[in-house]
């Protein structure tokens, strides 16, 4: 076996070699004075390193808790007293009460919503929608009937007015016809008379 | 994370923080060597995660996203510290106190405790003396137990590169800690920490 390198000896000394390799190195060490001397040197250094003790590591410095606690309790009492005093004397007390009532209502509302059943709600909504639809249809039908009757009445009135107008026009037309005929006769007579006057007297 | 991204869920973000706060804090501490900086960086990291939540892709692992942000912040902090050349005595004292608190009451006697603290401090200085691109591999592999392929994903480098960097880092550490390994009672001659060095890969992130 060749002499192991320094790096390999480090792995040996610090126990990072697999067992088979470790046995092989041990055997080499037993038979090689040069390597044994070198390893002995390193082992001596390793032993020496163990002689540098770690000083007692100070724990995290403890707080002087009693004075701190005393002042903390005093501060808490003063703060609590001021807080209560402020709550009692504050004009916002009434608002606070109202706010609490609102919160209670909201809480009830939330509870109701928590009990909410979607199937029932859909059924109720469908029934209500159907009823509303029927009601609207009935109203629409009545409105249509009323509208139809009104239209009929208006049409009848219009027809009556038209007939009256027609009769009146007929009367007027007959009058005009009579007048015209009378005029024609008068004209004929006038023309006849005129012709009789224009003809020479028979000799 | 997707709840944070899509709904700005504060509870989800709190869960993420509860899950990842300690690992990120450990990482930042190992990278900067300072617990105060680590705490600040951890808070900043989670703030940045929230700000950039839109950048996170659900196809990628959240942990990779988070490690990368935290490492970037660490590098930024190291760069700023390098400019300031800061050396906070307070931090050193706090570290000493922290190290003391780490050692339990059932530890051996005062001499042993002092000796352990000295060894720990030497290792800390040695780790901080590593270039940042070596240090981050050491921290992620050795302390945070990430596999090499995971480290490759976080840093955007091949797995083999992560392993070779680890080998080089351990070699350098051995040299730096020679005094510690041979005789823990002697005064170590460790070079000045080079923890301000910027890693090349994460600059692009």
Structure in words:
The complex is a heterodimer of chains A (203) and B (205). Chain A contains six helices and no strands. Chain A is an all-alpha fold. The longest helix of chain A has 81 residues, at 118-198. The radius of gyration of chain A is 65 Å and the shape is elongated. The model of chain A has no long low-confidence stretch (mean pLDDT 85). With 205 residues, chain B is mainly alpha-helical. The model of chain B is unreliable at 87-105, 185-192 and 194-205 (pLDDT under 50). The interface between A and B is medium-sized, with 23 and 38 residues.
Q: What coarse outline of chain A follows from CA principal-axis ratios?
A: elongated
Along the chain, the helix and strand elements of chain A come as HHHHHH
Question: Could you list the spans of chain A in which at least 5 consecutive residues all have pLDDT below 50?
Answer: none
Termini separation of chain A: 193 Å
Assembly type of the chains comes to heterodimer
Give the SSE string of chain B.
HHHHHHHHHHH
Number of discrete helical segments of chain B: 11
**Count of DSSP helices of chain A?**
6
Which structural class is indicated by helix and strand composition of chain A?
mainly alpha
Percent of residues in helices of chain B comes to over 70%
Beta content of chain A: under 5%
Record field, number of beta strands of chain A: 0
Outline of chain B, from the CA principal axes? globular
Query: For the CA atoms, what is the radius of gyration of chain A?
Result: 65 Å
pLDDT below 50 for ≥5 consecutive residues: which ranges of chain B?
87-105, 185-192, 194-205
The averaged pLDDT of chain A comes out at 85
What distance separates the N and C termini of chain B? Answer: 20 Å
Structural class assignment of chain B: mainly alpha
In helices, the fraction of residues of chain A equals over 70%
């Amino acid at each position: 076996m060749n002499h192991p390198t320094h790096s390999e000896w480090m792995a040996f000394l610090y126990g990072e070699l697999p067992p088979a390799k470790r046995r092989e190195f041990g055997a080499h060490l037993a038979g090689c004075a040069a390597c044994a001397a070198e390893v002995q040197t390193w082992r001596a250094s390793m032993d020496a390193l163990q002689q540098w003790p770690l000083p007692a590591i100070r724990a995290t410095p403890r707080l002087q808790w009693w004075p701190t606690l005393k002042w903390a309790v005093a501060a808490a009492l003063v703060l609590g007293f001021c807080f209560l005093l402020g709550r009692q004397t504050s004009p916002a007390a009434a608002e606070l009460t109202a706010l609490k009532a609102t919160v209670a209502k909201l809480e009830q509302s939330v509870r109701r919503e928590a009990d909410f059943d979607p199937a029932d709600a859909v059924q109720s909504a469908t029934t209500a929608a159907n009823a509303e639809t029927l009601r609207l249809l009935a109203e629409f039908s009545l409105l249509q009937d009323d509208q139809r009757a009104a239209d009929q009445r208006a049409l009848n009135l219009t027809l009556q007015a038209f007939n009256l107008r027609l009769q009146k026009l007929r009367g007027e037309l007959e009058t005009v016809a009579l007048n015209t005929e009378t005029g024609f006769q008068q004209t004929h007579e006038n023309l006849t008379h005129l012709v009789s006057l224009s003809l020479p007297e028979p000799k | 994370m997707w709840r944070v991204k899509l709904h700005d869920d504060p509870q989800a973000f709190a869960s993420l923080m509860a899950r990842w706060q300690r690992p990120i804090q450990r990482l930042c501490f190992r990278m900067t060597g300072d617990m105060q900086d680590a705490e600040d960086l951890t808070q900043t990291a989670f703030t940045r995660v929230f700000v950039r939540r839109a950048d996170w892709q659900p196809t990628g692992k959240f942990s990779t996203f988070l490690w990368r942000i935290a490492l970037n912040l660490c590098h930024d902090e190291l760069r700023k510290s390098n400019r300031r050349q800061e050396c906070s005595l307070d931090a050193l004292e706090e570290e000493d106190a922290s190290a003391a608190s780490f050692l339990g009451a059932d530890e051996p006697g005062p001499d042993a405790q002092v000796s352990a603290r000295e060894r720990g401090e030497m290792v800390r200085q040695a780790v901080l003396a590593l270039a940042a691109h070596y240090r981050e591999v050491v921290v992620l592999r050795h302390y945070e137990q990430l596999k090499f392929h995971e480290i490759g994903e976080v840093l955007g480098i091949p797995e083999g590169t992560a392993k070779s960097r680890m080998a080089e880092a351990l070699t350098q550490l051995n040299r730096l800690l020679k005094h510690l390994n041979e005789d823990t009672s002697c005064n170590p001659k460790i070079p000045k920490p080079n923890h301000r060095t910027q890693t090349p890969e994460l600059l692009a992130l």
